[in-house]
Amino acid sequence: MLTDASRLRDFPALTNQTYLNTAAESIPPLCTGFAIEAYWQDKLRGMKGRDGHFAQVEACREISARMLGLLPSEVSFCSCTSEAYNLLATALELGAEDEVVVTDLDFPAGVSPWLRAANPPRLKLWKAVEGALDPADLVPLLNERTRLVQVSLVSFYNGHRIEWQAFRDTVRRLAPNALISADITQAIGRVVLDCQDADILISSTHKWTLAIHGGCIIGVPAAGAERLTTRAGGWLHLKNAFDSDRFERADTRTGAASFSVGMPNFVALYALNASLRYLDQIGIPAIAAHADPLAAAAEAGIRALGIQPLCRWNGTGIVAFTHPRSVEIHAALESRNIHVMHNAGRIRIAVHGYNTEAEIHRFLEVLSELL
Predict the structure, then answer these.
(1) Model confidence pLDDT, tens digit, residues 166-216
(2) Which of 35, 104, 119, 279 places its Cα 20 to 30 Å from the Cα of 321?
(3) Mapped to the 3 state alphabet, what secondary structure does the chain carry?
């Protein structure tokens, strides 16, 4: 993706380290930092700075929509995926007679709102087999009472990428009243998306998008806007927030716009606008074409060392495995400036466009020595 010169120019923080932990935290390019500085300069203008703030929000909406394959009017922002899922829960107003399907490869933010509801729906678990979700195993979980099926396009846990078309067709056929919610946090900015026909798309902003904390992208196609309108209080998402009838009614914008309930986290959107435009200039297909062989080589190398990854690699940036000596291995890798994720015996590596073949070789070489 990058020449040696452009990599050094755009990502000086990568010098003298092997960074394979983008699925947790990315290393932003310098343009993201310049955008944060631009926010500060606008902020110093006081109220006049809001002209720049809201211009950046609209620019970020445009590039986010382009990345999602949606219209700008179908995209909005909140502060994090946890907020987004809790707002989604207000829109659906589920009860005990309703059913929600989640997977055991999903992040807690997409699961816990249904467990914490005042009147919780019945939760059904779609379990992975050998690290993969088979749509055939989903069939007995679906019926006319299914109101929501929540999945991650790419799992944070092991990097499994769902077979979107087969999954979508199964839900549409067997659960005609269900909405499909897709978490794309571990996909956007790294893989070519194929899930634009989900009813709602949700993503954080500090991983493969190369931006910072404090943002969340919401995508709701116009066809489902009425069904996916939050019931939250606030002001930014209201049409009549300052009208004379504001104490009598709250007229909410529909769909994605209803998720932006208050003042945007402007600095996060300055950063996201810059980072997404950086990625768009390179092109997600080009990023995937560069990084996919590296991730595949990492998986093959791990298998060659006698370690079974948590799932078979299928076109994502993540490879994960468990090991009895994971704590020791992680500490030794860190001591050699090779950065991976470690949690509860699981080691996860993440390969983005800024990684190189030499880095994968170094990781595997050191891992082999440690074993």
Answers:
(1) 999 999 999 999 999 999 999 999 999 999 999 999 999 999 999 999 999
(2) 279
(3) CCCHHHHHHHCHHHCCCEECECCCCCCCCHHHHHHHHHHHHHHCCHHHHHHHHHHHHHHHHHHHHHHHCCCHHHEEEECCHHHHHHHHHHHHCCCCCCEEEEECCCCHHHCHHHHCCCCCCEEEEECCECCECCHHHHHHHCCCCEEEEEEECECCCCCCECCHHHHHHHHHHHCCCCEEEEECCCCCCCCCCCCCCCCEEEEECCCCCCCCCCCEEEECCHHHCCCCCCCCCCCCCECCCCCCCCCCCCCECCHHHHHCCCCCCHHHHHHHHHHHHHHHHHCHHHHHHHHHHHHHHHHHHHHHCCCCCCCCCCCCCEEEEECCCHHHHHHHHHHCCEECEEECCEEEEECCCCCCHHHHHHHHHHHHHHC
